[in-house]
Automatic annotation (TrEMBL):
CDD domains: NAD_bind_m-THF_DH_Cyclohyd (cd01080). The lineage of its organism: Bacteria, Pseudomonadati, Pseudomonadota, Alphaproteobacteria, Sphingomonadales. PANTHER family: C-1-TETRAHYDROFOLATE SYNTHASE, CYTOPLASMIC, C-1-TETRAHYDROFOLATE SYNTHASE, CYTOPLASMIC-RELATED. GO terms for molecular function: methenyltetrahydrofolate cyclohydrolase activity; methylenetetrahydrofolate dehydrogenase (NADP+) activity. Belongs to the tetrahydrofolate dehydrogenase/cyclohydrolase family. SUPFAM superfamilies: Aminoacid dehydrogenase-like, N-terminal domain (SSF53223), NAD(P)-binding Rossmann-fold domains (SSF51735). It catalyses: (6R)-5,10-methylene-5,6,7,8-tetrahydrofolate + NADP(+) = (6R)-5,10-methenyltetrahydrofolate + NADPH; (6R)-5,10-methenyltetrahydrofolate + H2O = (6R)-10-formyltetrahydrofolate + H(+). The gene is folD. This is Bifunctional protein FolD. Pathway: One-carbon metabolism; tetrahydrofolate interconversion. One of its GO terms (biological process) is purine nucleotide biosynthetic process.
Length: 290
C-alpha cells in the first residue's frame, strides 16, 4: 500500500494566502504594513538563498521586508547595535538573524539581544520558556509547521497517539516534543544515544525525523499506517555523475510503502517554515498594535 503524500507546498500556499488577507486588513487598521527585518552576516551561499526567499515571500504576502547585510568580519558590537536599532524601530514587527553566524560571533548572545516580542523565530530563551509553561509567545517555525500538517491530517487532538521525535535540537526536536505533548500525544524524544532506535520508532503512530542524516529512517522501522513527518533536507550525490539531489532523513521509497501518510522532500516541511515565519510576523504585528 502506498502512503498518502502530505503536500506541504500546497498547505503552505494556502497559509500564505490567508496571511495575505490578514496583512491587507492589518494595513487598513494600523495605517502601515507589518514589517519583518532579516539580518544576514557574511556570504554563506545557502543563507543568501534562504534570506532572498524570505524577503520575496514577505513582500508577496503584503508586508514590508527589511534586509540588513553585514560583512563576515562584522564585530559583535556592530551586530548588537543593529539588533537594538531594530528592537526600537516601530515599523519592525519581527526580527530574524539568519543562522549560522560566522564563528567569531556567539549565537546565544545575539539571539538574547532580540526583543522577545519581536523574536518571530521563537529562538529566544524567553520564548522557549513561554512554550514550556504554556504562555503565549513565539514558537519556532519548523516545528509549528510540522504540527499544522499533522493536525490537518489527524485532527487537533492527538490523544491516544504515540509520537516519536528523532532529534533533540533546541530549534526543532525539543519544541516539537513540547507541541505534541500540548496536543495530548504521548511523546518520546529519541536521539543518537537511544538504544534500538528502530524498535522505538516502530511504536509510533507519529514519527517526526529531524536528525540531518540522509535516509536514516528505514521502511521496516515504521509502524504500518503511521504518519511520518520528515524535517531533513540533505543534499546527496545523484544517480548521474556530478548531479546532486535532495533527500530527507527518511528513506522515502521504503517508508511510503508502509506509512499511512508521509511528507516528501522537497515539498513537505520545507515550504511550511517560511509560511509560519510570515504567520508569526503577522501575529506579532497584531499583538503590537493592540
Ligand atoms: N537558518 C536555517 N534555518 C533558519 C531559521 O529558521 N531561522 C534562522 N534565524 N536561521 C536559520
Amino acid at each position: 500500500m502506498s502512503a498518502q503524500v502530505i503536500d506541504g507546498k500546497a498547505f503552505a500556499a494556502g497559509l500564505r494566502d490567508k496571511i495575505g488577507e490578514f496583512a491587507t486588513a492589518f494595513e487598513a487598521k494600523a495605517g502601515r504594513k507589518a514589517g519583518l527585518a532579516v539580518v544576514l552576516v557574511g556570504e554563506d551561499p545557502a543563507s543568501q538563498v534562504y534570506v532572498r526567499s524570505k524577503g520575496k515571500a514577505t513582500v508577496a504576502a503584503g508586508m514590508n521586508s527589511y534586509e540588513h547585510r553585514l560583512n563576515d568580519d562584522a564585530s559583535e558590537e556592530e551586530l548588537l547595535a543593529l539588533v537594538e536599532k531594530l528592537n526600537n524601530d516601530p515599523a519592525v514587527d519581527g526580527i530574524l538573524v539568519q543562522l549560522p553566524l560566522p564563528k567569531h560571533l556567539d549565537e546565544q548572545t545575539v539571539i538574547s539581544a532580540i526583543d522577545p516580542d519581536k523574536d518571530v523565530d521563537g529562538f529566544h530563551i524567553i520564548n522557549a520558556g513561554r512554550l514550556s509553561v504554556g504562555q503565549e509567545g513565539f514558537v519556532p517555525c519548523t516545528p509549528l509547521g510540522c504540527l499544522m500538517l499533522l493536525q490537518d491530517k489527524l485532527g487537533k487532538d492527538l490523544s491516544g497517539l504515540n509520537a516519536v521525535v528523532i532529534g533533540r535540537s533546541n530549534i526543532v526536536g525539543k519544541p516539537m516534543a513540547q507541541l505534541l505533548t500540548d496536543a495530548n500525544a504521548t511523546v518520546t524524544i529519541a536521539h543518537s544515544r537511544t538504544k534500538d532506535l528502530p524498535a522505538v520508532v516502530k511504536q509510533a503512530d507519529i514519527v517526526v525525523a529531524a536528525v540531518g542524516r540522509p535516509e536514516m529512517v528505514k521502511g521496516d522501522w515504521i509502524k504500518p499506517g503511521a504518519t511520518v513527518i520528515d524535517v531533513g533536507i540533505n543534499r546527496v550525490a545523484g544517480a548521474e555523475e556530478g548531479k546532486t539531489r535532495l533527500v530527507g532523513d527518511v528513506d522515502y521509497a521504503q517508508a511510503s510503502e508502509v506509512a499511512g501518510a508521509i511528507t516528501p522532500v522537497p515539498g513537505g516541511v520545507g515550504p511550511m517554515t517560511i509560511a509560519v515565519l510570515l504567520r508569526n510576523t503577522m501575529v506579532s504585528a497584531y499583538r503590537r498594535e493592540n
